[in-house]
Specification:
246 residues; alpha/beta; Rossmann fold; 7-stranded parallel beta sheet; globular; binds NADP nicotinamide-adenine-dinucleotide phosphate
C-alpha cells in the first residue's frame, strides 16, 4: 500500500475510465476501480495497472445504487487506505429524440450519469473534509455544454454534473479540496464505436481538428488536474474536444 491514498475511478474497466486508471497508476497512485459487468476488460485493466508497480482493487458496483457505492468505498479504504483522488467516469447513453424517449431511458441515464456521480462524491467528500485534502474530477460531455439532439437525457445529466461540481467546489474549497469537470467531445471508445459512417462524418464535420480524440487525450488532462500543478484550479469545466462547435 502506498503512503499516498488510492485514486478511485468509476467505470474504470473500459474506455476513458480505463485510460484514467492506467495513467494515474503511471503517476504512482494505487488504483481502485468499479464497473457494472467488468468481465475480461476489467481483468486486462488490472494487469496493466499492476505492471506499473502499484496496487489495484476492482469490483462490480452499480454507481446508481448509493448503498453499493458506500460498501465499495468501505472496502477500498480497508484494502488501500483513505481515498486521495476520485474520478467519476461511469456513464451510459440511451439516445432518442425526446418525442420518442421512454421514461425508463430518461431515468436510467440520469441515475447512472448524474446520480452516480452524486453517490460517489457524497460518499467520499466527508472523509476528504476530515483529512483536509482530496481532489475530484467528474467526466461530463460537450453534450452538457451545448445540448445534443437525441440526447436530452444525457445532455441534462451532464449539465447537471457541471452545476453540481461548481457548487460542491465552493462548499469544500476551504478544506483544501478541489472539484473540476472534464467535458470530452467525440472520443474513440466502445461508446462511440456504434456510430454509423454518416454520424461519424457529421461529427468530424463539427471538429476543426478533423479527428476523433483518444481516451489518453482525456486522461492526460485528468492527470494534470489531480496533481499539485493544478493546485489553484477548482470549479472549472474544461473541454477536450478538438475545438468542436455544434
Ligand atoms: N466516448 C465519448 O465520445 C465520450 C464523450 C463525452 C463524454 N463521455 C463520457 O465519458 C465517460 C466514459 O465514457 P466511455 O466512452 O469510456 O464509455 P464506455 O467505453 O462505454 O465505458 C463505460 C464504463 O462505465 C461503466 N459503467 C456503465 N454503467 C455503470 C454503472 N451503472 N455502474 C458502474 N459502472 C458503470 C462500464 O462498466 P461495464 O463495462 O462493466 O459495463 C464501463 O467501465 C462517460 O461518463 C461518458 O458519458 C464519453
Amino acid at each position: 500500500m502506498s503512503e499516498r491514498g488510492p485514486a478511485v475511478v468509476t467505470g474504470g474497466s473500459r474506455g476513458i475510465g480505463r485510460a484514467v486508471a492506467v495513467q494515474l497508476a503511471a503517476d504512482g497512485y494505487d488504483i481502485a476501480f468499479c464497473y457494472r459487468l467488468g468481465g475480461d476488460a476489467a481483468v486486462q485493466t488490472e494487469k496493466e495497472i499492476r505492471d506499473l508497480g502499484v496496487e489495484c482493487y476492482h469490483a462490480p458496483c452499480d454507481v446508481a445504487d448509493l448503498s453499493s457505492v458506500q460498501a465499495f468505498l468501505g472496502t477500498v479504504e480497508e484494502k488501500l487506505g483513505d481515498t486521495a483522488v476520485l474520478v467519476n467516469s461511469a456513464g451510459i447513453v440511451k439516445d432518442n429524440p425526446m418525442v420518442l424517449m421512454p421514461a425508463a431511458d430518461w431515468h436510467a441515464v440520469i441515475d447512472t450519469n448524474l446520480s452516480g456521480t452524486y453517490n460517489f462524491c457524497r460518499s467520499a467528500v466527508f472523509g476528504f473534509m476530515k483529512r483536509k485534502s482530496g481532489t475530484i474530477v467528474n467526466i461530463s460531455s460537450v453534450a452538457g455544454v451545448f445540448g445534443n439532439p437525441t440526447q436530452t437525457n444525457y445532455s441534462a445529466a451532464k449539465s447537471g454534473i457541471h452545476g453540481m461540481s461548481r457548487a460542491l467546489s465552493k462548499e469544500v474549497a476551504k478544506y483544501g479540496i478541489r472539484v473540476n469537470v472534464v467535458a470530452p467531445g467525440f472520443i474513440d471508445t466502445d461508446m462511440t464505436s456504434g456510430l454509423t459512417d454518416k454520424a461519424r462524418k457529421a461529427a468530424l464535420g463539427m471538429i476543426p481538428m478533423k479527428r476523433i480524440g483518444s481516451p489518453e487525450n482525456v486522461s492526460d488532462l485528468v492527470s494534470f488536474l489531480v496533481s499539485e500543478r493544478a493546485s489553484y484550479i477548482t470549479g472549472q469545466v474544461i473541454q477536450v474536444d478538438g475545438g468542436i462547435a455544434f
